[in-house]
Amino acid sequence: MLDLRKLPLEAQLTALLDGEVSPEQRHELEQRLATDENARRLHEKLRHGADFGRRRLDDILKEPVPLALVRSIKSTQPPKTPIAQRATRPPVKLAPSGPQALAAALILFAVGCGIGYFVGISPDADEIATTTSATAPANTSDWLGDVTAYQRLLIRQPRHLVEVPASQAEEISSWLTTAIGVPFRVPDLSAEAWTFQGARVILGDSRPVGQLVYSNADGDVISICFRKDAQPPETDDFKETIKDEIGLVTWHNAGTSYVLAGPSAEAALGQLAMKIATAI
After folding, report:
1. Cα distance between residue 279 and residue 194, in whole Å
2. Strand pairing partners for 199?
3. What span, in angstroms and rounded, lies between the C-alpha atoms of 85 and 88?
4. Which of 153, 209, 224, 264 has the fewest other C-beta atoms within 10 Å?
5. What is the superkingdom listed in this entry's lineage (predicted)?
6. 4: DSSP letter
7. How crowded is residue 244: how many other Cβ atoms within 10 Å of its Cβ?
8. What is the mean pLDDT of each successive set of 10 residues along the chain, which is 280 residues long?
C-alpha cells in the first residue's frame, strides 16, 4: 500500500473519497478531518466537485446517440487485416501494479473533479440554446426543404392526406392555433377548383408547422404551410421557387411565414398564393 503521508493533503483526501486507502489510513485521515478546519474545507470541496462531475456524467450517458454518429459507425469500413492474422499477434499484458493503479485512480479522480468544476461554472446548455434561438435567424432553407419533403409524401399517399378532415372545421381551428401559435382562417379555394381536405401538423426546421391540404378533380394536391417566426425576414414579397416537381411560393406577414406548395407545372400557383394571403 502506498504511503499517503508522502503525498499532498489534496491527494490524500482524494484517495479517501475514492476508497483507495487502508483502514489505518482512513482512521488517520478522519482524525485529521475532525481537528483540522482547513482539511475539512478542502475535503468538502473535493467531495462536492466529484459528486457534481458524476451527476453530469450520468446525464451525458443518458442522452441519445446523435443520428450522425450512428450513420458514421454504420458506414465505417471493416479493418483490412484478416482476423486470423491479428489473432496471431502476441498478447500484451497491461496489468498495473498496486501503486500504479492508485496513482492512475488519483489522476482520473482529479480530472473528474476539474471537469465537474468547469462544467459547474460554465453556462447551462439550456441557456445557450435559448440565447442562440433568440438571436440567430431562422434557417429558411431547412424550413422549405422540410415542407418540400412533406409535399412529396402527400403526393405519394393520396388516400391519407390529412390528420383531421375538413368536416371537423372547429377542431382544426383550435388545434392549429394552439399548436402553431398563429391565428388563421381556412381559405375557400372552390372557385379555383381546389377542395379543402383537412389539416396536419408537421415539422419545419424542428418547429411546428400548420398544413392545410387541398386537392382537385385531377388528383393534384396543394398545401398551405405556415409557422410563427422567431425573427422576420428582410422582405415580405412573394417569391417562387421550383424544386423538381414541387413548386413553392413563399411570403411573410405579421410575424408569420407562409408557403404554398403544389405541382411545379401549375402556372397559376403565384396568383393562387396572392389570393390565399388575403384570405388566410
Report:
1. 14
2. 164, 212
3. 5
4. 153
5. Bacteria
6. G
7. 8
8. 71 81 84 86 81 68 55 57 52 53 56 51 43 44 86 88 93 93 93 95 90 94 90 74 91 92 90 94
Residue 77 falls in which region: left (phi positive, over 0), alpha (psi -120 to 50) or beta:
beta
For residue 258 the three cell numbers come to 407562409
CATH 3.30.200.100 applies to domain 162-277: yes
- What is the Rg, in whole angstroms, of the alpha carbon atoms belonging to the chain? 31
Whole-angstrom distance, CA of residue 224 vs CA of residue 194: 12
| pTM of the model as a whole | 0.50
N- to C-terminal Cα separation, the chain? 79
- Give the chain's count of helices (H) and strands (E): 10, 7
C-alpha cell at 175: 388545434
- Site of grid cell 386537392: 215
CA distance linking residue 210 with residue 181, whole number of Å: 10
Rounded distance, CA 34 to CA 261, Å? 74
37-62 and 9-17 helices cross at what angle (nearest 10)?
50
141 CB-side CA count, 13 A: 0
Rounded to whole angstroms, how far apart are CA atoms 211 and 150?
10
Q: What angle do CA 226, 227, 229 make, to 5 degrees?
A: 135
